[in-house]
Amino acid sequence: MNPDITNRFESHRRRLTAVAYRMLGTRSDAEDIVQDVWLRWCEADHGTIANDEAWLVSVTTRASIDRLRTAKVQREAYVGMWLPEPLVAPLDDQPDLAAERADDLSMALLVVLERLAPEERAAFLMRQVFDQDYPDIAEVLGKSEAACRQLVHRATTRVRQEQPRFTVSDAEHRDQLMKFAAASRSGHLDTLRALFAPDVTLTGDGGGVVASVPKTLVGADRVARLFHVVARRYGNLMDHKLALVNGVPGLVRYVDGRLESVFSIVTSPEGIRAIYAVRNPAKLRSVVALT
Q: What DSSP string describes 222-253?
């Protein structure tokens, strides 16, 4: 293989992985897509490619749309609720796969994107996250610019409705995380309840392999009681560590020294608003040990 061809591809690998992960929500699928794109790149007539990045992103997006259509059928048979595979890194690391802002990688956003149709998701990401022009989006999706504008508008409206933003400083966010970690270990019901906004939600993903909530829990009392019960059983064995979870500070929970859950947590001035708990062991395999 011509080294120049390889170097040209490798200079864009990070961005391609970022596109594929945001489209599919799993690291393994994203890596598979990028490998497929690499094979197509090797077979391409490079003399006809005017812009490497545009060509590679277009191929990655189309391949991700096809994979997502298949994945959506498979996820309908998933046991319990499906959450994206978390990207976990030490707090001082740069967010993995984050070619752009960390909030464009958050678990909360990916959960909303999962509810969009594949082409809606692609149009939203291309425009709102990767800042591509509508003519480029139209070429990738094989639609008119007007149709793509409508896709982006519809997707953006839904994201804003389902993912409200709360103004909390980094220090306050971390403070709420640490208080939650301590209360989760002690299991004190009133302390737990006081940490949550009244309409807090808890979404869990055990993949049918480990125990998890079968549907989203809503309300401070219900969520607090769940963590109270868990603490009564495992409290003295639990340890929580701060980490970057999809580019935002979150928590990794160990039970008796074994990685057990990854928590992505949305905080607000009124308290914790949403908890996403990934417990499926298959989605935790890539989580490195945190010291």
A: HHHHHHHHHHHHHGGGEEEEEEEETTEEEEEE
